[in-house]
Amino acid sequence: MQNPISRRACALGATVVALAAPVALALPASASASANEVVYTADDDRDGIYSVVLRDLESRRVTTVLPADTTEEWIYDDPELSPDGGRIAFSTDRGSASFDEGIAVVNRDGTGFRRLTTPPASTEPTGPYAIDVAAAWSPNGQTLLFTRITTDVRTSPATVTTALFTVPAAGGAAAAVPGGANGYTADWSPDGSRIVFAALPVDPDPTDDVVVENEVGAITVMALDGTGRTPLGPTGLMPAWSPDGSTVAFATITSRDSDRTRSEDVTQIATVPAAGGTSRNLAVTQPTAARTVAEYPAWTPDGESIVFDLFGYSSTVAFPPGDLWAVDRQGLRAGRVTTTAGDDTQAHVQGPAPSAVSAGAPSTYTPVTPRRILDTRAPGVGAPAAKIGPGATIDLAVRGVTTAQGPVPANASAVVLNLTVTGTTASTDVRAYPSGTPVPGASSVNAGAGQTVPNLVTVRIGDNGAITLRNSGGTVNLIGDIAGWYTPDAAGAGFAAVDPSRVLDTRSPAVSAPAAKVGPKGFVDLQVTGALPTADGTSVTVPADARAVVLNVTATGATSSTDVRVYPTPTDSSVPEVSNLNVRAGQTTPNLVTVAVGQGGKVRLRNLGGSVNLIADLAGYYASGATGRFVPVAPTRFLDTRSGVGAAPIPTTGSGVADLKVAGARGVPTGATAAVLNLTGTGVRASTDVRAYPFGAARVPTVSNLNLTAGATRANLVIVRVGADGRVRVRNGAGSVNLIGDLAGYMIG
Hints:
Number of domains: 3
CATH class of the largest domain: Mainly Beta
Oligomer: single chain
Distance between the termini: 60 Å
Strand content: over 45%
């Protein structure tokens, strides 16, 4: 049996979406409190001498922890970050008089190197000899689990055996794991009570030259005391236990090399239930028909994606390049995380544990005629007449504010505002959150210098009856128009979600209006109750007693800069002094609108100047008979394809999807029926639209939630029904884009 540890032998020439290669920085490494990071080995010169590297997945900052030592040529293998992110365990021959690999630890800034294990030295010149590899931290950070490989060169070919050991992370004697004979590449269960490993088969004829199962074994779980040893079903190696404890990822052979004396088998990443059962190969981890090896699977902290190492074969390249890749847990989307000329390998991901949502009480909705309650321009409404500087905040009182339907009550739990950013002097984001709570990592509006950008926000109200608005960069003016509020009682209306349905389109073929642009000061009175015709030739029904509807309104083909106002169809010619969309000539601009139903079951969409086409997509409605109750939460990031939150840390390509787990995740109950998400697109490579809809839907809806141009960063609130497995599917139309989703609340009932 050949040695299970082998360096790769070939190169990959696949065409994939690539991120810009970062530059290694000579900076001290400090543990990230908010972002996921990956530790790996890198061979920039492709000379077989590796360094240990840290990479912040969101910022792409790269820090060298242990540089490649071209003088001593130390081996650095299998790095893994400690649970607190402060130390790195790895295998190395550094610190050994006999140059055998043992387990060592080092601080994340490269200081404090300490060797923990020294394998027993051979008493004979010809062996046997041993090395310690593949260290894995226990969940409490106190113990390291590793594999000891012993090679006896007195046989021809050499005989190799493996066993599992543990060693205290603070130093001490290594101890064999009971029942760990023939164990290889082990990992811990999230609670630290069990381990999973590849149980290598016994070589029936160690004198032949055939690779036994290519050094893979039955994926096996057992308690640390050796009891309950149970094969899960498949064979493979390098198993990794998911953070939720439900699944094990591993590398599996999917195509054998016809020459069994060499190691050119194709491997992919696969998963199997931790309780045992049928395994599932993630086919996208072999991106082309070329023979490739996918290995070293490592879960992101929320368990929604896997980072792994991918390389290809070559008969001519001594040190072939490989890259770190990532794949969504669902196995639909894979791509490069790193793109370097060198070799990146042996990834391990660490980051803060996903926090549970901070939820308010289930509430009903009271819509109002839109009214401006905030304007920091002169003369000032709801705040002093002054721009908001970088890092500055204002507290906007909400409870007690007067509207046409009466004051916002003292028990209001959340407010719905159309928040507009204008007069920006630099690119910025504005964050709206409950007053008296920490600044969230989630943003509400993104705007560039000189832009005017609105976005509907639903914000939980703080204990003092106010919400806080924080500006990140430059100086800005803020405008807030109230559309309604939620209260934890039956005084308002319940919510009913519908599958996204286009109920208005003034383009040809028109829906619910003439096929003509809306001119200056022109309007469309859109029927929103009853059986409503839709763009796909069907209809959607909204009850006659609906008090408000949720529409994603899009303006396109504007001939001049204008604003669009959406409000209850009045009994007179009155026009509210509030806007929902601010549109530049030639732009396509969407915004979610929650609007009270007006005269005759209609709402009015009014254009200010020039001419423009208007589109409206129904997402749901509020009615007394609807059972849905809104649960507001402090803004919580559930999706970020830049950093590996909710999906793999890779852009979403054209026609690609991210399937975001909402119901049953992070404190959101499994019975949640819809999600209220602030959805942002950034890093846009080409003009595209983004659509959010229930996972498992029979077809992609014709409606869009975001319309993006190359280079833009734009947000839009969406209310979307939750589908199978509690997931929402977010689909990108063209090019590539990074997707961000911040949960503002969810519907139950």
